[in-house]
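Journal club side-thread
Mid-discussion, someone asked how the predicted structure for our own chain would compare to the paper's figures. Pasting it here so we can look after the session.
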Amino acid sequence: MKLVIPPTVYLADSDGFNARTLGELLVVVTANQEFIERTWNDYFAYSGSLRR
């Protein structure tokens, strides 16, 4: 499954999940969008500094 977050959350690929599960996942990801984006950016900012 692939969900795209910024600027709005939408489903890019479902990989066989049923509609109910996809709906539940979409609700959870939307509710946690800011946290997910912040954590993603922090991780890659940190890991990028290790490559120097």
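Post-session note: Helices lie at 19-31, 33-50.
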